[in-house]
Specification:
Blueprint lengths: L1 E5 L12 H15 L3 E6 L11 H18 L6 E7 L8 H8 L2 E7 L11 H13 L2 E4 L5 H7 L4 E3 L21 E5 L6 H19 L4 E5 L5 H4 L8 E3 L3 H9 L3 E4 L8 H8 L4 E4 L4 H4 L4 E4 L4 H12 L2 H16 L3 H24 L1
Parallel strand pairs: 1-2, 1-3, 3-4, 4-5, 5-6, 7-8, 7-10, 8-9, 10-11, 11-12
Length: 359
């Protein structure tokens, strides 16, 4: 099929790393794996930093739609939008699908009914309009499903995140001492920086009981200068290319990320693909992607995080078994699995689209 992809939150070629950029890129890879012809239909982004941004973005939407129709090199069978919610409502998808007579699907829609009133009410209404127009809606996390099921029950399709496992396929060797912990973070203000700070407190407790334990953190961002003094010198190694991150994971024994208010965290899937056991906070969508290959602790709890780290590093047999389970879980959620999930989403969308045309 021919698929026109829209990414109102962040395009796949954005310069700043994020989970949204990663998922958009993975969708394009999975579409290629599934034999589809796919392209980013428009660079138009509707992400609002404040509610008052929406008016100007809405005014630009008709021009963006016209430009998309002018430049798109094929007539799509499916218009697919990645990430629609009140701060980044899909303003193009329903109109583009209607123009081409195509089915319309959304992956990772989030709906928070409390936003129906208050400063984000207009954005919520626009996101709801896109949901109502969608023939299929992929719910990525269990947390998102209830509100979506209340609003678009017949369009809803469970849609598990997936990962390109190939870059992380090297054998997992671990460290000689079996005590090497790794983490990776985009050091932005807010929940990311809070998670790094919590990791510092937890590792301090770990080092007090297990002095041979070591920690390496990959990543960078505006909060790095404030956070780096919380750790021993040399802990931070900066932003790594994918191959270097994979090598770091292959030589480590445990991946840890506190995941305060984390939507789900692709880095958990990447670490598991490398055969690393993972420990994370049981936040939002993290519970959907950390199963037998890891341990979840109450989010924001330093003592619980430290205790989980010590328990796993102190039990080599359990550590090894958890790492093997991690790699198996990632393998079950690879690009092939992603392609199959997209095919199922498209089949649902096309059935409902065809049925609507017959009414």
């Amino acid at each position: 099929m021919k698929v026109a992809l829209l990414t109102p939150m962040k395009p796949p070629d954005a310069s700043t790393p994020s989970g949204d950029r990663t998922f958009a890129r993975l969708i394009l890879k999975a579409l290629a794996t599934g034999g589809h012809t796919a392209a980013l239909a428009s660079p138009f982004v509707t992400r609002c930093n404040a509610p008052e941004d929406l008016a100007a973005i809405e005014a630009e939407a008709p021009r963006a739609l016209a430009k998309t129709i002018e430049t798109l090199s094929f007539k799509p069978d499916i218009v697919l939008t990645y990430h629609n919610y009140h701060k980044a409502p899909d303003l193009l998808g329903p109109r583009l699908a209607a123009h081409y007579g195509a089915a319309y699907a959304i992956v990772e829609a989030s709906r928070s009914p409390r936003q129906a009133t208050g400063p984000w009410a207009e954005g919520f209404a626009r996101a709801d309009a896109a949901l109502a127009a969608a023939n299929a809606v992929g719910a990525v996390t269990a947390r998102d499903r209830p509100a979506l099921a209340d609003f678009v029950p017949h369009a809803l399709v469970p849609f598990q995140p997936f990962i390109d496992t190939a870059p992380f396929a090297a054998p997992h060797t671990g460290s000689p001492g079996g005590r090497q912990i790794v983490s990776a973070a985009m050091m932005r203000p807010g929940r990311k920086a809070d998670s790094v700070a919590l990791l510092a407190s937890a590792f301090c407790k770990v080092a007090g009981e297990m002095p041979e334990a070591s920690l390496t953190i990959a990543g960078d961002g505006p909060e790095r200068a404030r956070l780096e003094p919380l750790f021993a010198p040399g802990t931070f190694v900066g932003r790594l290319a994918e191959a270097d991150l994979a090598a770091l994971f292959a030589g480590a024994d445990l991946f840890v990320w506190p995941a305060i208010e984390e939507p789900f965290g692709f880095v958990f899937l990447e670490a598991q693909a490398a055969g690393l056991p993972v420990i994370g906070g049981a936040a939002r969508g993290v519970v959907d992607i950390v199963r037998d290959g890891g341990v979840l602790v109450p989010p924001g709890k330093t003592d619980a995080l430290a205790a989980a780290i010590l328990a796993l590093l102190s039990n080599p047999a359990r550590l090894s078994a958890t790492g093997k389970a991690a790699r198996s879980f990632a393998a079950a959620n690879d690009l092939g699995a992603g392609a199959a999930r997209l095919d199922a989403l498209f089949a649902h969308a096309r059935r409902r689209h065809t049925a609507a045309l017959r009414q």
